[in-house]
Amino acid sequence: MTMLEVEDLNVGYGDLQVLWDVSMTIEADDDVVALVGPNGTGKTTLMKTLSGIVEPTSGRIELLGEDVSAYDADEIVSLGFVQVSEGRNLFGDMSVYENLRMGAYQHRDEFKDTLEEVYEMFPVLAERRDQDAGTLSGGEQQMLAIGRGLMAQPKLLALDEPSGALAPQLAERVFEKIEEISDDVTVLLVEQHVDRALDLADSAYLLENGRITQAGTGQEMLESDHVRDAYLSG
Ligand SMILES: Nc1ncnc2c1ncn2[C@@H]1O[C@H](COP(=O)(O)OP(=O)(O)OP(=O)(O)O)[C@@H](O)[C@H]1O
Hints:
Layout lengths: L1 E12 L2 E12 L4 E5 L6 H8 L7 E6 L2 E2 L5 H7 L1 E4 L11 H8 L7 H11 L1 H5 L10 H14 L4 E5 L7 H14 L4 E5 L3 H7 L2 E6 L2 E7 H6 L1 H7 L3
Parallel strand pairs: 3-8, 3-9, 6-7, 7-8
Antiparallel strand pairs: 1-2, 1-4, 4-5, 9-10
Bound molecules: adenosine-5'-triphosphate.
């Protein structure tokens, strides 16, 4: 079963075209699919388009066989595509628990069970359930953002730069969690840490100047001369 099929997607803001003929496929049995590329190349724009926040000018997006190109963000979440955005978008003056509850707004009945699963995966969130989200450390906030995404019971979880702004050791802990999550949920991973992302990925896409310029397995991409020269040091 194909989880996500993107065909010839063109997206822009006013006169500025950002994505050109982007096509990609994510299979339901993929654990991690990575999207890598330089700053400002359109990765976040692609994530926003897939999650129904930005409308494409042309092209087609199919989620689990359903054409969702014109769906709004809520409909896309209810079909199982959940995005954790780069800025995390936490409610800083609300508790960890309340933030997690917000994530489950479409699944109130199963809230308790899902909450237990998220607490099990991120024990630090259980410990700090009553603490305001805004007072958590950067790493803890990232865990909370991912935990809140999981509360929406995604089939496909998109993570936009989950290791962004974290110290290397914390970033590594986030990657370990992503690996754990990907046993149950397909993860679309947008990352600056190209080597780590490709290492985790079953398949990967390189986005440059708004176009997919290379695609392959994570291993193939790691061995590509262009990827090594442009994005991997040493
Ligand atoms: N709301 C907007 N209005 C106008 N232009 C925008 C808007 N959002 C993004 N852009 C432009 O679109 C281009 C792609 O931005 P985008 O954030 O998608 O890139 P990115 O690959 O995610 O970059 P980064 O890795 O730095 O986050 C940039 O030139 C950016 O200035």
